[in-house]
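Same chain as my last thread, 382 residues:
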Amino acid sequence: MKIAAIHAREINMQLIAPFETSFGVTHHRRILLLEVCSEDGASGWGEVTAAEGPFYNSETTDTAWIVLRNFLAPLLVGKTIETPEETLHYMAPVRGHEMAKAGLECAVWDLMAKCQSTSLSQLLGGTRAEISSGVSLGIHEDIGKLLDRIAQELAAGYQRVKLKIKPGKDVEVVSAVRNRFPDIALTVDANSAYRLTDTALLKKLDAFNLTYIEQPLEWNEIYQHSKLQRQLETRICLDECIHNLRDAQAAIELGACKVINIKLGRVCGHAAARKMQDYCMGHGVPVWSGGMLEAGVGRAHNIAMSSLPGFVLPGDVSASKRYWEEDIIVPPVEVSAQGTIRVPDSPGIGFEVNKRRVEKLTVREEEWTATRSAGGVPVGAS
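reply #2:
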């Protein structure tokens, strides 16, 4: 399969409600969509999950656009791909920029699945017909409103509730939630808001029967998490500091965590995610799919990834309507009354991209073709 063209679009989408974490509040998303086309006219779609600012990691919507335009797209366009795993080989000269790479790599997986008339889940080796869905809730100033929101999400069927926390918005909030909902699967996500000196405070969370505490310490720190995990009864789940299989191996061998959150963008795409979940499964470490406020394309890829056997905990993949008035895929992602999402069995990601809506939301676009790009030389904008 020869990559004949790569089409990049930036779309702007307004969230239904602001989403607050320890590092800020998100009101809207600037999302990069990548369409990779073969010579026979087939195409696959990927989504770059980088945020607008360098607060989750060092990548942003704008840095990803530059790296895609000047380096990654020219390295990949015109190449013949036998297996999707080869995609990262062609982009290997570029160090880092995992989310930009993952957008292209995921699009190639979608394209390859369509060319083989199989679902992306099947191509990846997925074993589930449906996945378990959890809900992630941002920081709320009003605990009463948070409790009401949780009741609504539980009534909608979600199997796990995750609370964003930060200093001053932690123990009191978790205590109120656990008192109101004593039996639910409950987790917290600190997004690197604490330090090892906060161990005494974090130990207070042991009283609330949490499934795990996600990324309590610094975003690039594995060793100190190993020191913290030895002092907590609650399992630590690592997110921001796990960029590849080597990081996962180091974290598990050091005892830095007992759960790992796998995000396609953070780990460079499906090939790396498959290896990571396989290693974790072999070492008794459960994994699950985290979210980055994706639109429908990214959400569809997360569903396919979550069908792999190592993904045994409910992830952050939830219904489109929780975030968007109208998604960019047809049909939108829906969650059943039992808190599950069906894994599509139609070719590729299993959802149609609503191109009319994408065009309406597009604020810039650029295309690279095999005839216009050579040797990593930047090509022009359309």
